[in-house]
Amino acid sequence: MTNSNQPDTSIAGRMEAAGGQMTFFEHLAELRKRIINSLYAIGIGAFIGVAIAKYAIVVVTNPIIKALQSAKLDAHLFYTHPVGYLNTYITLGVYIGIVLASPVVLYQIWLFVAPALYKHERKAVTGFVFSTVFLFLVGIAFGYFVTLPAILKFLVSFQGTAGPIKPMITVNEYFDLVLMILLILGLVFELPILIFFLSLFGIVTPKFLWNNSKYAILIISVVAAIVTPTPDAWTMLIFMVPMIGLYFLGIAVSWVVIRRKEKRLAAEAAGTTS
Q1: Region of residue 232 (left: phi > 0; alpha: psi -120 to 50; beta: else)
Q2: Contact yes or no for 97/48 (Cβ under 8 A)
Q3: pTM (2 decimals)?
């Protein structure tokens, strides 16, 4: 016969596993700490990025140079302001710095979110940081090697048929286009991570995602039409196909998350009844 005044150790264990409660001001202090650490990391990364920007500029301008050469046009970029090239140089360095600092920034985000998670979920920090950075870099690589050449080929060939009118592409406008495409695709490739967190907090389930996949594809089509910088259907498909694939990959991720959560709850229920 058990003592009714004795505390339920299983419930206490689950409360301890879920992390301690923090006050509002403790959350603000923790957020401030994580933001400051992230800014330090970005500052150091930007310093390194500016130092290697002169090498990165050659890589970034390679697609447009090839597109201009294939269209038999003047394969040069121009700047129309005395500080135009310097602005591009520094901007590129800062973006490189953000990418270099992203593992530290993501780690700080995880440390801020971790107190709200169970103990076994907090141990997934390595997988979270690695997966997020990996998918972002895959998105950038896809944009650089697949999407960007297709877009530039269409734009340059279209301009090249304009008779006496020839393109004079400025380095600032080109870099704005490149950074927009690479950033969008880098963020799009984070879709499985977003679905992971939504599933982790019980907001979505794999059944919900699957049943609403047709609406998701419709939304993806609209988003692809908005973010595609060219009016041709081929470029729009280049944006759409990976987004749809990532959505269904997210369904698989959600299934794994929900299955593990159900197993954990079943094991806890079995422990309380024994």
Answers
A1: beta
A2: yes
A3: 0.79
